[in-house]
Write a structure and sequence with these properties.
Order of helices and strands: EEEEEHHEEEHH
Strand content: 15-25%
Number of strands: 8
Shape: extended
Helix content: 25-40%
Number of helices: 4
Radius of gyration: 25 Å
Distance between the termini: 65 Å
Largest sheet: 6 strands, antiparallel
Structural class: alpha+beta
């Protein structure tokens, strides 16, 4: 029974992996042991780096950057990116330089997922669904350049086009199924009528 805990709000027993109580809807806090932030690549302590009013955890050796979920959303907001004049020219996607390998989360130590930011940017980020994102040196600037060049809009347009095509295919299959059912019912009716 170690996968069960009590909800902080309603007190009912729930699965310990839940982040929202299914009974009362309360957002649950994770009980993390205080863990010193360590670079998942170099295994050295991360330093606090101030960027404007935001604090990021930075590795002095490899230049990697840890951003908590809220910090990552702030750093990649279109409003913030468009205010920055550093990004000139079109964004050019670079080929992958290395075979990706999975690294642990800075906060919880669990292996993070790798995903292509915006699905088409070519920037592979390491993400812990609960805590945040690890970016290797220079990846934040690439992501911001991708956003500034309209990359998120292109990704959304691509998803809309893909969904539109899937809906057309589904409509065609539904029409074919309906036609087939009409034929079957028609022949069943004829058999019933003339089969006697």
């Amino acid at each position: 029974m170690k996968n069960i805990r009590n909800c902080e709000y309603c007190g009912k027993k729930i699965n310990s992996s839940y982040t929202v109580c299914p009974l009362c809807g309360g957002h649950l806090h994770e009980n993390l042991k205080s863990r010193e932030p360590v670079c998942p690549r170099c295994n050295i302590r991360l330093d606090i780096h101030l960027h404007g009013s935001e604090e990021y955890d930075l590795c002095a050796k490899c230049g990697g950057l840890w951003l908590d979920r809220d910090e990552f959303h702030l750093a990649t907001r279109e409003y913030e990116v468009y205010r920055n004049d550093d990004f000139k020219g079109p964004y050019l996607r670079e080929p992958l330089k290395e075979t990706p390998h999975y690294i642990p989360c800075v906060r919880c130590g669990k292996i993070m997922n790798r995903k292509n930011f915006g699905r088409i940017s070519g920037v592979l980020i390491d993400e812990c669904n609960k805590h945040g994102v690890w970016l290797d040196a220079g990846e934040l600037a690439k992501i911001q350049h991708f956003i500034a060049d309209g990359g998120l809009d292109r990704a959304r347009d691509r998803e809309i086009s893909k969904t539109r095509t899937e809906l057309k295919d589904l409509a065609t299959r539904v029409d074919q199924t309906a036609f087939t059912q009409k034929i079957i019912h028609f022949w069943n009716f004829k058999r019933w009528l003339f089969g006697r």
